[in-house]
Amino acid sequence: MTVTATPRPKGHPGYSQTMRRVPESAEAARRLVRTALAAWGQENLIEDAVLVITELVSNSVNHARLESIRVVITRPSEDVIRLGVADRARSVPLLRTDSNGDDTRGRGLLIVDALTERWGTELYRWGKQVWAEMKCEAAE
Length: 140
Prior knowledge:
This protein has 140 residues and is α+β, with helices and mostly antiparallel strands. It has one domain (3-135): Heat Shock Protein 90, CATH 3.30.565.10. The chain is 29% helix and 31% strand. It contains 3 helices and 6 strands, in the order ββααββαββ. The chain has helices at 25-39, 46-63, 108-115; strands at 3-6, 14-20, 68-77, 80-87, 118-123, 128-135. It has a 6-stranded antiparallel sheet with strand order 1-2-3-4-6-5, covered by helices on one side. The radius of gyration is 14 Å and the shape is globular.
């Protein structure tokens, strides 16, 4: 697995890692989120952020194709942290308000929606990235 840090215009590095598209990758994604938020002094967001990234990875594992996904954590501005998972599928996830009778599946995006300021999908020629943004404390 490769971890890269990319400089951003605001001076905050971006964190990204390519992972296998397997359920066990959620733990590696949670570690990456903890690392990024600790580096940015945003420990207060870690608990919610690891839930969000777990749901995004889970959706990608369940619905994408090919063997890898890419987890991306960036800070596009002083007060926003963006968590994303890119994969090779172009299907756009939908926020479901019912579980279709399944008590254990189908609520991941409800959790993402509840814990973040906003979320969405960016479509690319080769696939998509599902992202979620959280408000954070501005740097001192």
